[in-house]
Design goal:
By secondary structure, this protein is α+β, with helices and mostly antiparallel strands. It is 38% helix and 25% strand.
Length: 315
């Protein structure tokens, strides 16, 4: 991944700062080229190469769970024997409510569940805790999902299903599947994106990186810190960042809101990772930093598919 690759990756995120599902696989290649002042053909070639090289495994498109009255919760699972990880990620996909997972270097992996009731969340967590290879599991913390501001129409539900089924398909092809014009489909799609009704989640394989170290820094903010100001300062100190996630205000422990940012950096050595840690800690408003090395992002879409299909049948 050279500097141009990183710029393209950032530009495919609407607003350039990641928020749940904000990476948009259908952002116009021509539009990305215009923003970066490069030929659109160059953009297409780079995106195609990511897939050929195995870095971008694809996208999963899922409806915002708040459309179904559901929420998200996340926690960490310890797998002491790295040889058990592959089976764990296969088995996790069989558990009701499993939604996302992030494999990291070392024994700890991040798991996220979608749930409609506290009892359902406890059942999902309990089944995960009993999977082969799991030696420990931290409590799952419910998250504040960004709520959608729209009530989908019957056509919107059909569009959501088309997007979920063919996440990388051109909008004009999806429009034919639904039976509407490209103009109508695009207008509805943009509204679904704008109103946070649909999430596009990339499946990235960081093990495909060569000649560089990818580190993820969880940046914990002070209670009164201005998160936007911290974001701007992090962008200024690390202009070649891979991804920057604003997760401020997401976790809800029932007593106070945790304030958190997530920064992905491409670095040349372990020494540079430590240097970056020090620089981040010097930013006003930062109270602590945790460093992880991501390997791969997993998406489990069965829960979303079942609810979406059920809703379409009811319509």
């Amino acid at each position: 991944m050279d500097p141009l690759d990183l710029k393209i990756l950032r530009e495919t995120s609407r607003g350039r700062v990641m928020w749940w599902g904000s990476l948009d696989p259908r952002v116009s290649i021509r539009e990305v080229g215009r923003r970066l002042r490069i030929d659109p053909t160059t953009v297409w070639k780079r995106l195609h190469r990511w897939q050929i090289d195995g870095f971008l495994l694809g996208y999963s498109v899922v409806p915002n769970p708040t459309l179904f009255g559901a929420r998200l919760a996340g926690g960490s699972v310890r797998i002491s024997d790295s040889r058990a990880k592959e089976r764990f990620f296969r088995d996790l996909g069989l558990i009701e409510g499993a939604a996302f997972a992030v494999d990291q270097v070392g024994p700890w992996v991040v798991v996220m569940f979608v749930f409609e009731t506290e009892r359902g969340l406890q059942r999902s967590a309990g089944l995960t805790r009993n999977l082969p290879g799991v030696s420990e599991m931290e409590p799952c913390i419910p998250f504040h999902c960004p709520k959608t501001t729209m009530t989908p129409s019957r056509l919107d539900w059909r569009i959501l299903e088309a997007l979920r089924t063919h996440p990388m398909e051109d909008l004009s092809q999806s429009a034919q599947t639904v039976g509407v014009t490209s103009k109508t489909f695009t207008r509805r799609y943009n509204r679904l994106i704008r109103d946070l009704a649909v999430w596009s989640v990339p499946q990235l394989d960081f093990t495909r990186y060569r000649g560089a170290t990818v580190a993820r820094f969880l940046v914990w903010l002070r209670p009164q810190a201005d998160s936007h100001r911290v974001l701007v300062r992090l962008e200024g100190r690390f202009p070649s960042y891979i991804l920057l996630e604003d997760q401020t205000g997401l976790p809800d422990t029932g007593s106070k809101t945790v304030r958190l940012l997530s920064l992905f950096l491409q670095l040349s050595s372990a020494g540079e990772v430590e240097d970056a840690d020090r620089v981040i800690r010097e930013v006003d408003g930062v109270v602590d930093v945790e460093t992880y090395f991501p390997r791969r992002i997993y998406v489990y879409a069965d829960w979303f598919a079942e609810r979406l299909e059920r809703h379409i049948r009811q319509e």
